[in-house]
Amino acid sequence: VSAPEDPVGSQLRKLMLDAARQIQPSRALRVPTSGTSTPPRRRISRVVVVLGACVAAASAAFVVVAFGPRAQVAPGSGGGPAAEVLVIRADGRVQVVSLSTGGVLRTLVGPGAVDVAGNRLDHPVAVTASADAAYVTYRRSGVTLEPTIERIPLTGGPARPVASGIDAAVSRDDTKLALFRFDAVSGAQSSSIVTGNVTVQNLATGAQQVVYSSTGAVSFIESLSWSPDDEDLLMSGLFANAASATPTASTEVGVQLLDLEQPLSSNNPHFVLPPTNPFERKTNMSDGQFVGSNGEIAVLSNNAPSACEPSATRVLSVDTRSRTTSEIASVNFAVSQAYFDTRGTLVALERSTPDCREVPTTASTTTALSALGSVKSVGTTGGGSFTAGPSRYAVEVRRAGTWTEVAADVVAATIVP
Amino acid sequence: MGPEASGSVSELGDEASIDLIGLFRTSWVDMVRLATFLIGSQTAAEDLVQDTFERLAVRDVDAAAPVRYLRASVVNACRSYRRRRLVEFRHRPSGTFCAEDHPRELLDVLGRLSMRQRTAVVLRYYADLPESEIADILHCRPGTVRSLVQRALLELKKELST
Per-residue pLDDT tens for B117-156? Predict the structure, then answer.
């Protein structure tokens, strides 16, 4: 015989039923493609997986912050569909993660997957995304092989290699891919003489066009961003302005705007803000991104003494005419990239210091990259090969002025436009 | 579970395989409501339940009791969500949750409970589960569930009477 229910309990039950009627989902369930499920596995396997995940999460050290080049709304405008972030895990998984909950919505590539050509999809280093596909850069085994950029449909399907290079950025209309790579100088006596080229590849035809070449081997483009009309490119990184000069005297760090409709000239490309010398330990501008649909530019301002020391980062809006800035946000950790999601929420990935270590390349290149506050990948002068940096990041989302971690131990991430 | 979906999905279970799509469609609304009561945000609740469905589609489901398994998965997802939010609390000046969705008053009241108390109360008075099943979900004894519910009702008594 059960005891009579507590009056408070009865009242609560009624309130809950009334409230439940008011709670109507705002969207339909997205039914997974799999219609059946296998019988349960032993519980111990789940415990092992959870423990492994905990260890992995505890070891995650780096956080990166990124600006969304393809954000559909201006920062802070609110609205828009539920935002998603595309994350690349260290084990090769490519997943779509909810920015609201941190939960995995879809897994596009699992561990040990291969592309249509049979290449293993491991060692991912970077990602960019259009509304239809992710473009993930994979480092191939063997240092002499250039990284390969694979196109992976967001709705599922096999990965397909489309280009070679790093720091790719897909245009908003998903027709062009901008990327950076070192190419051997034509006619050079040594294969170690290379030039850094920004190339735009037509994704339909495969045709490539070099749109910008560095004048010295120490140039290194860290990120690229397309303008809303796909006519301009923002190039962030390290620029050498004289091949014969010493690196410390000729190297500049900053963000340059390249007008693809105009010929290269002394003013094209040009720095959107005065560049800095990475060896002078001044505040550096990095990761220039087009934000929103009107061509606004945002950059990161970081004065870290090196990539391995924590520092605050400012997110700045740039007025390209007056070359002045206004602060969008100030973040109390070192940031190398940032995105605004479809609701205008700032998405941040931070890299903490314990796992940070300098990348052993040439002294000039290493120091300069460290001053940028981010080492996603490092170019060497050895025949145009690349070595991936050891970075691990955690995706952070800022809501009401506070940060929430939605994904840890990721290699790279970007907003799904 | 809530009155609208209970019963209808219990027949979907099969020893060999489970009609997950049918389970998802019939349980979607109730699971969103359950999650909303547990975490105070309908927006986040929808994402959490969607996440849970996605995970179940590729993982294992207890074929003998799919609804029970689904409900426990949603509750666990909500508890994980709350834990992540608690980490955020350390950096939040006001120290309060944002229950941005309706029905705000009841959600605010529930938000004054601990997560275990809140889960016990919601499962008891919304999902209408017996103490034994709540105990399974919370990994505790039925007596502990009874204690959690009683303490929660004492906390809520003042709020509900005003």
Answer: 999 999 999 999 999 999 999 988 999 999 999 999 998 8
Chain B nearest CA to A102, separation (Å): 8
pLDDT(A207) > 50:
yes
Q: What distance in Å separates the CA atoms of residue A12 and residue A20, rounded to the nearest whole number?
A: 12
Cross-chain residue pair A100–B32, CB shorter than 8 Å: no
Residues in chain B within 8 Å Cβ distance of A107: 58
Interface test with A, best of B34, B49, B60 (most A CBs within 10 A): B60
Inter-chain CB proximity A36 and B46 less than 8 Å? no
Burial of residue A201 (number of CB atoms within 10 Å: 0-12, 13-18, 19+): buried
B3: chain A residues, CB-CB within 8 Å: 17
Q: Would you call B57 and A9 a contact, using CB atoms and an 8 Å cutoff?
A: no
Q: Which amino acid is at A110?
A: G
- Judging contacts by C-beta atoms under 8 Å, the chain B residues touching residue A398 are none
* Residues in contact with B51: Cβ distance below 8 Å, sequence separation at least 6, in sequence order: A98, A101, A103, A104, A105, B77
A118: left (phi over 0), alpha (psi -120 to 50) or beta: left
Q: With contact defined as beta carbons under 8 Å apart, do A175 and A203 qualify?
A: yes
Mutate to test the interface with B, among A5, A12, A21, A106 (most CBs of B within 10 A): A12
| pLDDT above 70 for A276 | yes
Does A249 have pLDDT greater than 80? no
B88-92 contacts at long range (C-beta below 8 A, 24 or more positions apart): B88/A402, B88/A403, B88/A404, B91/A402, B91/A403, B92/A400, B92/A402
Return the top range by mean pLDDT from A136-150, A170-184, A351-365. A170-184
- CB-CB neighbors (< 8 A) of A29 in chain B: 24-25, 28, 49-50, 53
- Backbone angles phi and psi of B65, in degrees to 5: -150, 70
pTM for this prediction: 0.54
Structure tokens at A267: 């003013």
Structure tokens at A324: 């002045």
Does ipTM exceed 0.90? no
